[in-house]
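Sharing a chain and its predicted structure for anyone who wants a worked example. Both blocks are below, sequence first, tokens second.
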Amino acid sequence: MGSGFIISTDGYIVTNNHVVDGADSVLVRMSDRREFDAEVIGTDPRSDLALLRIDAKDLPVLKLAKNGELEVGEWVLAIGSPFGLDYSVTAGIVSAMGRSLPTERNENYVPFIQTDVAINPGNSGGPLFNLDGEVVGVNSQIFTRSGGSIGLSFAIPVRVVRNVVEQLKADGRVTRGWLGVTIQDVDKNLAESFGLDRPRGALVVEVAEGGPADDAGLQAGDIILSFDGTEIPTSAQLPHVVGLVSPGTEVPMEVMRDRKRRNIDVEVGGLGADDSYSLVAGGGASGQGGRLGLVVEEAPPELLERWGINGGVVVREVAPDSTAADAGLLPGDVITLIGSSPIKSVASFEEVEADLPQEGSVPLRLIRRGSPLFIGLKLKG
């Protein structure tokens, strides 16, 4: 059981995907106790939205807010059927905007509205209102250890709802913008390493070959500071912004590369299925330790082939209290880049290590347990 609301007089209804997922049939009960069998027009698991339609005319509808802009501290209301208690109204305030929540596929295409409105099982899919009576979101999730509300509820913002509903109406499916990059947050050490005044942006750790970012010339080590005029404060914000752009649209990006800002235009692609990889343990000839406190060895050919990389060295040992240990390097990490210098072998690693400055911070790119990652090396004199 869940909630939903009517958005058009001819019977279109919005609810959550998880409310109807796997259902053999969907029954809609109106406030006047009439019941209708509903047709599922389309669902979008990535946003947890579904569009239904019932065979009815001249229905009362809710008004969607034009932009859905909210301020932290603003009052909001929710209507739903918690535990089957129809048309229950609860109230609270907006606690935060643009929240990213963990998902099974680690995708974050919804910048959730966080509120302290009491939301319980049965509220899912119901509307979140502002004090003008306009729908500003769709209640979707709660964080709880007890199964009931503890003041952490999350709603899908209306701008995402509009985008998804329009596509489901037209095509029965949703297509999202896609860049073809793997990204991570920028911490204090990395900000210093890349020449940023403070931690911000989305750090590119991998670029999909042949993808939109690759075609535009984006590189691993670039930091995306803005996309289509929207500032990117953290990496979690980038998928939200890119996902709302129609595939085929060319948009500007501001990036930091080699400590200089530059503008890059990219033609956004359509989101496809993600590949998955796993790291393979390898042997090879031992390398020598140095000022970073690392003993490395050649990456085996099967590892390079599996990961589609041209070279790298595998960390075998990390000396305690060393620069590498302080940065968090671990045995089994595969180092592929230090600063702007590719690491293709033990020899190239030792050459780059010997030429590092005595002090400062340098970015290092590695692959750990199947995922590319940048870390900042705080060099010791």
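Comments welcome. Confidence is low (pLDDT under 50) at residues 273-288.
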